[in-house]
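Hi P.,

Sorry for the delay on this. The queue was packed all week, but I finally got your sequence through. Input first:
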Amino acid sequence: MAIREDVVFLAERVFSLQPPFSRDELKTAFRREAKKLHTDTSGKDTKEDFIKMKEAYDVILSFDDFFINGASPAGVLVTTDGTPLSELGLGLGPMKNGADCPRCTHKGYEEDRIPGSYSSHRCTDCIYGFVEVEIPCKPCGGTGKFTQRRSGRIVTCRVCHGTKSVLREQICPKCRGTQWFSVKVGGERVIYYRCFKCGGSGEIELFNPVLPKGRLFS
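Then the structure:
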């Protein structure tokens, strides 16, 4: 039986995903990896690797409470500890003096926005950082023919051999010669934390024996 730490490891190792992430982000990562492991793309037998990847996908998907990317499976916004935001910011109750928490402004939670991460992959469009580009042949002007000066005969161009173009090596525009390129994994994510100053109540307690019990509005 897999535990939560195993799921985190599988997500990072197999799909290059760091929690929290949504089911849609997991499905997108699965399609991306499946395309890379396809026989036509990889050029080799990857059936066993695909089976392992599919097993990891099924394990992660079976953890219903794992997808805490700002919302629970039911669509309810939750904090990182799984507490629904609707249960926070309810105050200290009628028997305690309290004022709005200055950190969360009575919400009981704080939020953090995390930009999408990037995953590096080896470039498959080039060879050692270079690609062959077809350009017009300069000696024959792209005609494939060449006129000899002495005899005046029209002969086939010896440079392009009549093809009108030649191949030249250029730096790969995809990886810029580095042989690696980065792919963005998911967009901006919002993570909610329980406010540590008020403990999620949205208020801080005031100890003043003169004041009547109950929340004080500022």
